[in-house]
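so im writing up the methods section and need the TRAP transporter large permease record in one place, dumping it here so i stop losing it
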Amino acid sequence: MIGVTLIVMIFALILLGVPIFAALGATGTMGLIFLQSRSALGGISWITIPQSIYSGIASFPLLAIPFFIFAGEIMNRGKITEKLIKFALMLIGRMPASLAQANIVASMFFGGVTGSAQADTSAIGGMLIPAMIKEGYSKETAVAVTASSSTVGPIIPPSIMMVIYGVCVGTSVGAMFLGGFIPGLMVGLGLMTVVALQDRTMHFPRRTEKMTWEEKRQTFADAIWPLGMPIIIVGGILGGVCTPTEAGAMAVVYSMLVSMFVLKTVTVKDIVPMLYKTILQTSTTLMIISAAKIVSYVLTALQIPAMMGAFMASVTSSPYVFMLMVNVLILILGMFMDGGASVIVLAPILAPIAAQFGINDVHFGVVMVLNLIIGCGTPPLGVCLFLACNIAKCPVEKGGKAILPYVQAEVIVLFLITYFPFFVTALPGMFGYI
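--- predicted struct ---
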């Protein structure tokens, strides 16, 4: 009961508007006080708090987070987003609902650069939402397409949420990156299918202008540079040349060289503002991780994971039923809680239970990440939905209603990868991670 109370306390504080790191820290401290009151455990020294905070972030793989964020900032400041969008438009051509389809394709490319859904919404949405509205799409449709496609970012490598999961559970980040590649493509294709089906009744605008061969050649040449980053990241990891953290550092160097010396869209004076934004985003994530370590320590001391595992085993012996229960739980929590924070809190508890049911940790991690990022586009607390509605000056209620068909497509992909692990494990298995 104490463990359940602590978990409920975390979510209650967050829903009341308490900052996530403060909610985790307060809950962890309350748990330590309880542990100290139990003489059978011999008491817990208060030095546990700073030790847990330090051990929570003293991890080499976590260095990948600031590197990926900084690389994304450089690419954004270097106007790389414009080149990716133009390349996506070239690929889509004059097919029905071309601008909406290009929005999704651009998000798939952009996901291979930043690994952040919020960054995708801000960058892609800031350009394409006004363009879609000007071309004749409704505000609700522009919001729905942009917010839903932004969720591809944390699935297609690199992914900040997968880095966090790998650190929390002790799973190879490289294997997680590979495991997310096919599901990311499946989500993108699913969203494009929804657009195509809606076009039959809503008759979205269709582009009629045709690019010349010279324009296509120039667009392709411009896109080579940003598309080189995911090749460096994934190729370096697969080739055994570097770790995910080192790949992140290489991505920073690559993006800086391209933006400053090839495209010449970033100057030296831009570096300090970019570093400042990187520090703000990184510190927020690391503060949550460090505070969550205190909670993890308390829950482990209370043997909560073992108790939950025994409870799940008493309810069902089927891994399929277990995964259904987990999906329903995380889908609901993802609607109310930040995805990264949910991974930090839930992964150390649920991953060991999944292992008891014979579920591969990489498979479970990708399912968990996809599950949580769906919440980024759903009310009441969908960050991407709110960002897109703010850009479009659209009421959240209307945007939330319009996004439902796209969320349904994402849920279908979620259950496909849940019950057909091959979609997740094929690439990691091919490269010897599984």
